[in-house]
Design goal:
With about 220 residues, the protein is mainly alpha-helical. It has helices at about 1-15, 25-30, 55-70, 75-90, 115-135, 135-140, 150-170, 175-180, 180-215, 220-224.
């Protein structure tokens, strides 16, 4: 999610020709950044992880209508999706990046968790934190604004992926597993920071919605 935000913001800032009106929709950027891993939920119907949902062609076809309607404005969101497998997964494992033209799994295979993994995720978190402050997104995402309700989407996606890992990895106790390695502890802390940020932003959105629904109190003395 953090690298999705970093790459999307870079694309938004430096790709020539993008009509920069308004801001990128951060909750959507974070959500599409992990969409390729939706294949984890399709294992029951025979879909293998890191296959066709981790290919350029698959996501290009998905984005064609968006390219037609929104033109270059949709590029940062496409970049947010593609970075997932063309950057992260390509380094950490092997992906079917050229599907359907090639069914070969390619990648560097550094593995998760590993020192490279920790460095990559920590760097993504730090860079994203710097950009979110510099761009003004931090103030906006932590303000009482009903649009921040959308942060519930990446929050639920992150929690769902964690639950999936806990249930399907054969780990009897996720807490014990995390404490079994310093690398896992660092990764867990990074994820907790992200969960806390998403939760606070979502809560602020719910506060704005509740505040808007409050009935207006009529001052009877002024009316008289």
């Amino acid at each position: 999610m953090m690298w999705a935000y970093v790459f999307a913001m870079i694309a938004w800032a430096f790709i020539p020709g993008i009509k920069r009106t308004g801001k990128l929709i951060v909750p959507l950027i974070l959500l599409v950044g992990i969409l390729p891993d939706a294949d984890l939920l399709l294992g029951s119907i025979g879909v293998m992880h890191r296959t066709f949902t981790h290919s350029f062609f698959f996501w290009f076809i998905i984005f064609v209508p968006l390219f037609i309607i929104f033109r270059l404005k949709s590029v940062p969101y496409f970049v947010a999706v593609v970075q997932h497998f063309a950057f992260g997964d390509l380094l950490m494992g092997k992906v079917m990046i050229l599907w359907p033209f090639s069914l070969s799994l390619v990648g560097f295979g550094f593995g998760m968790p590993s020192v490279v993994d920790v460095i990559l995720e920590t760097a993504g978190l730090v860079l994203a934190a710097g950009i979110v402050v510099y761009s003004g997104d931090l103030r906006r995402l932590l303000s009482v604004d009903k649009r921040n309700i959308l942060m519930l989407l990446p929050l639920l996606a992150l929690i769902t992926s964690a639950l999936y890992f806990a249930i399907h990895s054969g780990v009897t106790s996720l807490f014990e597993y995390v404490l079994s390695s310093n690398l896992l502890i660092i990764l867990a802390l990074g994820h907790l920071i992200l969960v806390a940020f998403l939760a606070v932003s979502s809560f602020q959105g719910l506060r704005a919605l509740k505040k808007r629904e409050k009935p207006l109190k009529v001052n009877t003395k002024q009316r008289q």
